[in-house]
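Re: weekly structure request thread

Next one in the queue (146 aa):
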Amino acid sequence: MTPELRAKKSAEVMWGDDPASQALGMSLDDIGPGRSVMRMTVRGDMANGHGMCHGGFIFTLADSAFAFACNSYNTRVVAQHNSITYLSPGQLGEILTASATEVSRAGRSGIYDVEVTGEDGRKLALFRGHSRQIKGVHFDEEHTEG
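Done, posted below.
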């Protein structure tokens, strides 16, 4: 099985078990070993008291992109620590993009950076996620074609 196919199959299984990302209208637009791109449109029910995207939704988008990137090797991985720095607000109706990239992966630990951007390319947030591998796999590779 190629690394790309492994990442796609892992993401397919995870997506099927991820009602949170689905309910927020996220889409998984790209996946590969140690990387992912997700998008989400800022809806009216995602607004804070200032009429802009609530930071928690930006964090959730970044966290979902991080999750798909670090789970792309057909190993079950969870977040150990995450942090985010907000740079610019997201606007209602705007499509936000979260691009996750692997920085380091050694043993059971990994570090991933996620950049969240607006439609015009401006940076909304920088997120860093630390991952930890747990027991199990997403699918049985021995009985999977590819």
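The CA atoms of residues 56 and 142 lie 39 Å apart. The chain has three helices and six strands.
Next request, please.
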